[in-house]
């Protein structure tokens, strides 16, 4: 697991343990992240949403720019990943 993933896990755990922190993160994501030592690049907007029992947010990541159309088509065709294997 990389450092960024660990930071996000710690951030989520802090939200679960501290409702006031969670409310700050929801109200001012970039400022709260900066206060936690997580850099937000200039020009990047951060949106925070909370899943509940009634609402689930599905985040669609940006498509990597280094994937070819063939690799993307293969993934849509049922392969498990960009490597092209069929063990999905």
Number of continuous helical runs: 4
Low-confidence stretches: none
Coarse structural class: mainly alpha
Computed over alpha carbons, the radius of gyration is 17 Å
Model description:
- The chain has 88 residues and is an all-alpha fold.
- It folds into two domains: 3-49, no CATH class; 58-88, no CATH class.
- Helix content is 44%, strand content 0%.
- Helix 2 (19-27) packs across helix 3 (29-35).
- The longest helix has 15 residues, at 3-17.
- It is extended, with a radius of gyration of 17 Å.
- It starts with a helix and ends in a 12-residue tail after the last helix.
- The model has no long low-confidence stretch (mean pLDDT 85).
Topology of helices and strands:
Blueprint: H1 3-17, H2 19-27, H3 29-35, H4 69-76
Keywords:
mainly alpha, 0% strand
Short description:
The chain is 44% helix and 0% strand. The chain has four helices and no strands. The longest helix is centred in the N-terminal third of the chain and has 15 residues, at 3-17.
